[in-house]
Structure formats: structure tokens, C-alpha cells
Amino acid sequence: MTDTGGVADPAGPPEDSLSGSDLRQAPEHDLPPTSYALLGLLSFGPELTGYELKQWADSTLRFYWVAPAMSQVYSELTRLDRLGLLESRDDRTGQRPARRYKISERGMAELRRWLSDTPIDFPVLKHPAALRLLLGHLVDIDVTRKMLGGYIAQLDERRAELQEVRDGLGSDATFRFPAEVAQWGLSYYDDESRTVREIVDRLSNPEPPDPA
Amino acid sequence: MTDTGGVADPAGPPEDSLSGSDLRQAPEHDLPPTSYALLGLLSFGPELTGYELKQWADSTLRFYWVAPAMSQVYSELTRLDRLGLLESRDDRTGQRPARRYKISERGMAELRRWLSDTPIDFPVLKHPAALRLLLGHLVDIDVTRKMLGGYIAQLDERRAELQEVRDGLGSDATFRFPAEVAQWGLSYYDDESRTVREIVDRLSNPEPPDPA
DNA sequence: AGCTGGTGTTCCGACTAGGAACATAAGGGA
DNA sequence: TCCCTTATGTTCCTAGTCGGAACACCAGCT
């Protein structure tokens, strides 16, 4: 087993000193999915700083993928660059010096390979509202009802944000797939909101005899 | 800020030696949600080994909460025990010696406090199928269609498993809340399956002019 | 001059994921 | 009988992830 490398190398100076043998090394195994998520954002073309990439992920990606932390965005960029999947340069044209990254040909190829070859994982979910409903026997019913009411309010808020994202994509074929994903999310929020309202109704009217 | 403690203490022998001052210490801050998830399972009453708790979590909890890894189950049990939220004993009655844990009064109280006082977080989602659909521009359309077909098949499978869980809960009022949560999950799988089928249809018939 | 807020990045500690490793028992087949 | 597989029960290690603190600099406002 060869060393696939730690992300940070605090001992070595970053400039010059082509010391490592792991420069431009192919990622023998799959990277974690979050790496492909960020690489995927960059596959749409822009040349971004870590800060800008984080903002973009926060505004769109987070609806179906956990928005990675700032620190993780930067360490991912460092790693992807080291693997040759990105190209980077120092940008001093703006008011602030910054490092800008864009996807490389290698990166595009690796992304295509991953999309074609890798079996799909089932979604991973952490659903606090469901967990709390499960534990309803421990608290007064009003606590649970109130909790679900708050969840519905959050759903409405998120739905409105996602609607804005979807509207911003227009009907241009360029953003056909992002638009499909946004639509998917909107359907999800609508269905979820309806389902939770039904649950709240059932909690209020304990046993409505089925009139069928 | 006082030390809220590492989970493992490899230096110290576990028996006797009341060395620490952090025994039976209240958790000043909230524990991570996964801790409350496991504590919540134990709030239904049983006295379990780490192994059994992991199996239970795998069979039911995983539908709306990431099933924690074996190693995490054990470290959580150790921590919750150290905090006085669990009671534990060595069990040698079975064929294999094992440590059994059940929830304490303190644990029940802390769980109730958390349910009542803590604001609810929005669900966290990692949705590989959505991420791949987003990147549809990179691959042939058939790759994306096939990917979504595989996802639908996984959905059907999961739905069948959850249906069994739900059937096992019956209509007894004891499991009213677990049954509601299971029903919630079933609705989610049904809605998601329908939505994804619609997406696949749209991918096949690119622009069906709206006949309205 | 100082305050606040946005840009840009790094570092650290805690939490989480996943598998390897270890140990023992039960059951089945050559 | 011996081996193999499966299940029980637990620990350890590595890498990945999260969240905040810290640092730095610039712009606009008071």
C-alpha cells in the first residue's frame, strides 16, 4: 500500500523545491464524494478562489450535498491541485492577492471516469425532526407538535431559497441538469411539507376512524 | 472552559482507581446528535451490548439517521456511561462475557431536556444521485438514465425493508411514534420514486411542449 | 481613529467513518 | 477430528469531516 498522502505538509516550504514524488500523481482509489462535488462545481468552467467556491457551494450545492466547511474547501483544493486535477495561479489583479483554481483536463477526465464507473451510493440522511418524533413518548405531545411546526416553517424557507436558485437558472439548455436537480429539490420540499402536515394532523386527532 | 474529555483513556485502567474528577459529570453542552440517537434507542427500555445496539440501529434507525459505525457505538457507550447517562454491568450469563448498558434516570432526564430545549436543525443530506444528475453535462445521457434507474431500484429495495419494520411495529399505542416515523419514511420513498421517474421521462423526451 | 463587515486563508481540536485486528463460540462438512 | 464459515463482542488506527478561532487586509461609516 503506497502512501496516498496527507493533505497538509507543514514541514516543507510550498514554493519551488520540487521535492515530492507525489506531484501530479493519479488518485489510485476514488476520492471522497465531497471532492468530486467540488470538482463538479468547477467543471462548469469558472476560475475561483476558495472563498468564492465556498460561497457558491453554500448557495446551491447545499440543497443536496452537505456544504463543506471553509477549512475543508481549502484542503480539498490543495489536494486536487497536488493530484493534477486542478490548475492554480496567484492572482494579484484584484485588491486582494488570492489563489485561483480551475479544473484541468485531467480533472475533467477523472470526473467523467468517476461518473461512468463508480456504483452509486444510497443517500445518507440525518433527519433531526424524524429522530425527535421517534422519541415522542418522552415528552408532552405539544412539544412534538411545536417541533414539527418549526420544521415546516424551515421547509418553507428553504423552498423559497431553492426557488430563487431555480429561477436563476432559466430555461437555457446549458443549465438543463442543474435545473432538473433544483426541480427535484422543490418537489421534495413540497412532498415533505405535505407529509409532515398530515402527521401533525394525526397527532392532533389521535384515532380518526377510517371512513372507508 | 473545562475539559469535556476525550472519549477513550488508554492510559488508565478502567476498574477501580476513582482517579478522575469527571466521573458522573453533567454534560454542560449538548452532546452530538448521534449520542442522543443512541440514548433514544435505549430509552425504549432494553439492556443491550454494543453489538446488539449496533444491530438495532442498522435495522431501524438508519432510515432517518446515519447508522453510526461499530467503533462509534462503543465509544459513545463509554462516554455516556462516564457521564452517568447510562448504567452498565458485566454480563457473564450468556455464552460470551459482555458489557450491557441501559439508560439511567439521569439519561432519561437529559434526553427530555434535549428534546424540549434544543432548537431543531434542518436535515443534512448527501444525495449522490442528485450530485450525479447535476453533472449530467459531462457524460452521455444514457449514463445518467442508467444511474437514475439504479437509484430507483435501490429505493424500491429500501422501501420493502422499511415496510417490514413498520409491519413489525403493529398498531399498538406503545410504538405509536416509531410507527409514525416509519410511515413518514414510506411516504418519502414513494414520493421520491415518483419524482425520479418523472425526471427520467423528461430526460428521454427532451422538450414535450406543455399542452396546457 | 476606531468599528464593523466582507474577503481570503490557515490551524487546531473534536467528531465521524470504515476497516483491520483480535478473541471466542457454534454449526456444518470433508 | 479438523477446518471453515458465520456470528458475537470489542478495540484500535487512519483518514475524513466539522466548526470555530485566529490572522490579515481592505472598505466604508462615524
UniProtKB/TrEMBL annotation, chains A, B:
<protein>
    <submittedName>
        <fullName>PadR family transcriptional regulator</fullName>
    </submittedName>
</protein>
<dbReference type="InterPro" id="IPR036388">
    <property type="entry name" value="WH-like_DNA-bd_sf"/>
</dbReference>
<feature type="domain" description="Transcription regulator PadR N-terminal">
    <location>
        <begin position="38"/>
        <end position="112"/>
    </location>
</feature>
<dbReference type="Pfam" id="PF03551">
    <property type="entry name" value="PadR"/>
</dbReference>
<dbReference type="InterPro" id="IPR005149">
    <property type="entry name" value="Tscrpt_reg_PadR_N"/>
</dbReference>
<feature type="region of interest" description="Disordered">
    <location>
        <begin position="1"/>
        <end position="29"/>
    </location>
</feature>
<dbReference type="InterPro" id="IPR036390">
    <property type="entry name" value="WH_DNA-bd_sf"/>
</dbReference>
